[in-house]
Amino acid sequence: MGRSGSVPALLFFLLLVICCAAVAASSTMDAPNEELGVNLAATKNQKHKHSGFSQAECPGACQYRCSKTAYKKPCMFFCQQCCFKCKCVPPGTYAHKEVCACYNNWKTKRGGPKCP
């Protein structure tokens, strides 16, 4: 008799767990980025996070940009010069210049890239 009374309780418990899982899944599907701390509506309307630097922020951004090069002094010099003019430093230590058009398009007299 103990078994016949526990089967409906077990079925009720399983149904409750399935319903709770379905509700939790549907609420995370609506806004999967909020639990990661990302608000896509706000970031779409903002500038790229690597642009809009003030002159005080340029040395720190260029320090990271030039961190893996063997030519730190010239890299820092030109990166800061570019950052002061363009108010932008591309992400990472290499490439990704397409993020900052001014940084990407500034050329030397010989036609090579001015900014590292």
UniProtKB/TrEMBL annotation:
**Would you tell me the protein name for this molecule?**
(wild Malaysian banana) hypothetical protein
Signal peptide residues on this chain, from the entry's feature table: 1-25
Q: Say which domain of life the source belongs to.
A: Eukaryota
Asked if the Swiss-Prot or TrEMBL record annotates the protein with the keyword Signal, the reply is yes
Task: Return the similarity comment.
Answer: Belongs to the GASA family.
Against InterPro entries, the record matches this protein to: GASA
Keywords, A to Z? Signal
Q: Does the keyword Cytoplasm apply?
A: no
